[in-house]
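Hi V.,

You were right to ask for the full record rather than a summary. Here it is.
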Amino acid sequence: MDRRTLVALVLLAAPLLAVTGGTLYVASNERSQRTFFSSRGPRNSAEAAAMGNGAAMMQFLRVEGDPTRVYPVRAEIISSQVQRATTLEAALWSRREEFIHALDREGMIVDAEQRRYLACLATDLKLPAIAEYLAPALRCIKGDALGRVIARSLPGDAGPR
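Predicted structure:
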């Protein structure tokens, strides 16, 4: 084989080898759940709520069923201090009043105690319209509800609250 033929073969094979290598890299990372794209979308109803994705939030809730279950939330979605939250709490971080109305209409705010807690969290997050909707004229201890959510993310405290 002469030199020109060898150069031509290498030039033809290089793109195919690069594409094959790239495909194998993406496939192996996809299998280990470490892809470049995997961190883009919500992984549970709490993340969907915090990201403002109401459709995904409701779709997850149809499968998960429990808006009061504590879910892991990636630090970049709410904050580095809040890495564990319920869907109801995360919905407050979206700052979308319509999410709270939708969750309430679906019967996911189940009792007066939960309503008061969410109203106090809304107050801590400076969401007066939502706090008023949840529990009009309620007096809260400033920072208490937010402190409960933050405490859940501290090292060594993995249990639900």
